[in-house]
Amino acid sequence: MLQKYNPKNENIIVHVGGKLLPRNDAKVSVFDSSVQGGDAVWEGLRVYNGGIFCLDKHLDRLQASAHALAFTDIPAKETVKKAIFETLQANGMKDETHIRLTLTRGEKVTSGMDPRVNTKGSCLIVLAEWKPLVYDNSTGIRVITSSMRRNNPQFLDSKIHHSNLLNNILAKIQANVAGVDAALMLDHQGFVAELNDINLFMIKDNVVYTPHADACLHGITRSLVIELCKANNILVEERNLSLTEFYTADEVFGTGTMGELTPVTEIDGRKITNRSTKSLLKDLREKFKTLIPKYSEKLPF
């Protein structure tokens, strides 16, 4: 599922290092840590009807990730919010907008891996684009299992929402070659972790299951779905899940800011067939829609 260029984004204004700049002038230095080593953290946010969904949750995670990577000058939450609001206002964006929020360790005085040569402070980037949900929830997506394993805490902990995404990108390349929408990634033990870009759930006999968040991100939408199940007396369980269990599930879906609750219709050529008389996923998606205004922070303009 290829994202398309939107001509409305040709002249967008981008916030880079404290300045609002036209798209073509929005750049970081070749000495920036994101260029030198993918040394940055990021969040994806969505704007709905004049509000930013789960803004505080995203900013808390951004700051936690930066702290875990030992950034020395993490901007305050209010500073980041101000930059976001200024960027949206400059572009006249209040709906149908995706924000890519990035915080790099900043510019180095000389190229190298040592963070001690980052002496100019971190660099905040707010990139807001007119963009629909990436995944089409009306048709769902097809996936294959990738040979690339998802990181776990033995290596680069997936709980850090970092910008070093090469293993996910390699998995996505495999999906592209196979002609499907996304790649399912396993953990080091062979259990299902998540897709290359969003978390995964499955439903079997009216019970909702999701993998332990050991080798995947503690997704914000993932957490909301778990809360939603508990609030509505829907059985939900986190445990190790094999590919076979996903192949034979009644329903499978991914969760994330970029697609909300996205049906997965096929895994490795196996059609996901609902043997139940109703769609619990449909019910969850309707309930999730009611959370959007509840968890959205209104824009101040």
**CA-based shape:** globular
CATH architecture descriptor name of the largest domain: Alpha-Beta Barrel
What share of residues are in beta strands?
A: 25-35%
Please identify which CATH superfamily of the largest domain we are dealing with.
Answer: D-amino Acid Aminotransferase, subunit A, domain 2
State the secondary-structure class.
Answer: alpha+beta
The CATH top-level class label of the largest domain:
Alpha Beta
Would you give an account of this structure?
- The protein is an alpha+beta fold and 301 residues long.
- It folds into two domains: 8-130, D-amino Acid Aminotransferase, Chain A, domain 1, CATH 3.30.470.10; 141-291, Alpha-Beta Barrel (D-amino Acid Aminotransferase, Chain A, domain 2).
- It contains seven helices and 16 strands.
- It has helices spanning 33-37, 55-68, 77-91, 166-178, 220-231, 243-247, 280-294, and strands at residues 13-16, 19-22, 40-48, 51-53, 97-104, 123-130, 141-145, 182-186, 192-195, 199-204, 207-210, 236-238, 251-256, 260-267, 270-271, 296-298.
- The strands form two sheets. Strands 7, 8, 9, 10, 11, 12, 13, 14 and 15 form a nine-stranded mixed sheet that branches. Strands 2-1-6-5-3-4-16 form a seven-stranded antiparallel sheet.
Question: What brief labels describe this structure?
Answer:
301 residues; 2 domains; alpha+beta; D-amino Acid Aminotransferase, Chain A, domain 2; D-amino Acid Aminotransferase, Chain A, domain 1
List the helices and strands and how they pair.
Blueprint: E1 13-16, E2 19-22, H1 33-37, E3 40-48, E4 51-53, H2 55-68, H3 77-91, E5 97-104, E6 123-130, E7 141-145, H4 166-178, E8 182-186, E9 192-195, E10 199-204, E11 207-210, H5 220-231, E12 236-238, H6 243-247, E13 251-256, E14 260-267, E15 270-271, H7 280-294, E16 296-298
Parallel strand pairs: 7-8, 7-14, 11-12
Antiparallel strand pairs: 1-2, 1-6, 3-4, 3-5, 4-16, 5-6, 8-9, 10-11, 10-13, 13-14, 14-15
